[in-house]
Amino acid sequence: MSGSSPGRLFIGGAWTEPDGGHYEVIDPATEEVVGLAPEASRAQVYEAAGAAAEAFGPWSRTRPEERAAILDRAADLVQRDFLAHAEVARAESGATASTARGMQVGVGIARFRRYAKGALEPVEEAVAPQINEAGPMGRAGVFGALAVRQPVGVITCITSYNNPWANPAGKIAPALAMGNTVVVKPAPQDPLSVYRMAAALAEAGVPPGVVNVVTGSGAEVGEAAVDSGDVDMVSFTGSTAVGQRIAEVCGRGMKRQLMELGGKGAALVLDDADLASAVAGIGTTFSFYSGQICTAPTRVLVHRSRQDELIAALTAYADRLTVGDPRDRATVVGPVISAAHRDRVEAYVELGRKEGARVVAGGVRPGHLDRGFYVAPTLLADCTPDMRVVRDEIFGPVVVVVPFDDDEEAVALANDSDYGLIDYVWSGDVARAFRIARRLRAGGVGVNTVGRNMEAPFGGFKKSGVGRDVGSYALHAYSETQAIVWPG
Question: Which stretches make up the Aldehyde dehydrogenase domain (predicted)?
Answer without folding.
Answer: 15-484
